[in-house]
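#structure-requests
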Amino acid sequence: MKRALALLGLVVVWACSFPDYNTGNGSGPGGSSSAGTSAEGGAGAGAGSGGGTPTAPSCKDGERNGDETGIDCGMAACSKPCPPGQGCDADPDCDGGKCQDKICRAESCSDGLQNNTETDKDCGGDQGCARCMAGKLCGATSDCDGGRCTNGQCQAPSCKDQLQNGAETDIDCGGGSCDPCEPGGACDTLDDCDNVLCTKGKCQPAACDDNLLNQDETDHDCGGSCAPCADTLKCKVAADCLSGVCPKTLRCAADTCSDKMQDGDESAVDCGGSCAKKCDVLQACGVGADCQSTRCASQRCVPLTATGTALSPANWSATAPTLSTSATNYAFDGLQGTNWISGSDQVPGMAFVLDMKTDQVVFSIEMDCNDNSDPNPENTDLAESLNVSFGEDPSFTGVTPVIMNRTITAHETITFTEPQVGRYIKFSLAFGKSRWWRIDEIRVKQ
């Protein structure tokens, strides 16, 4: 019984040891309370309306309430993104950053978003993100990983983009995928350079001692503009060889004057140059020393002096204006009783072309026209004015006459300052007149 009474006393003491907080209309022993809550029934100062009217949530009350995802932010409630560290439901709730685990994370180069100054997701810009790969958006070439920024898009590196990218060792060259670099370009290995040495990271100028076949060399470090090549090395012309002999094999060979080939410094086959044998008349020469006669004219060996001997016209032929009714050989048959005549009036360019069948050396030409019908040449069949040319073919292409506008007499001798060489001789009129052109005899002399 005593224990029960003791327990009851403890309950009474506990119940009386706390203030009496009342909510609602505020009516209590001490009168009305405007706050709606009174301690120990004390007198209230207000009308006793209880807790009053609750304040509506807003985006400026400094609290997270309503549909806000963070304090006074969140796109659904406030149309305002939240700063890093605040709550969020999705990325749009965050100011530039990313919503992760319902918390806005700060902008970064790995948040999977295009933000800050990035030109595409997590790349480009000036905040230290990686450069953008080909196909990504860009604002400048510096935003791109190697390629150029064209029309707002990063391009793949190429060998024509005027940038050093990819494996290139210099701008658009080297690296194996592009053309090798010119001298002066950067390099890592010999293959990065255009057939020149790579020394101290630079492609060197081509040289005659780089142990490479470059420049105009015909073999390694010889031929062309370098020193001549030794025997058996490759060549293109005689000057490429130390021996002066570059035969058809295009390999330098030892000099010989008896190999039945024009090689070394020979001016013709096995003669001239340093050979003991000198070249005969009409063989090729460069200087008089190449010739037995010691005289070289028109790059042919010729007699030292004129002999005055008339060349035999046997087998010779000629072409002349088609209106002529006389045979062309009458002009060189050795007979004064025959002649060739044009059959039409003389006009500039009218020509009589003599074919001697082989190349001949000519010191002088004699021409006869036995028309003495009038003392005035204008009234005779003499050529009005004559040009004389020598050629290797009857077209005389590119040939300049050696005699021009020569006035012709009835018995004319034309002596050349230098001996002339050729198979064909062309006599052409420089001027015309109203008379036919007549030739009684032509004598070609050596």
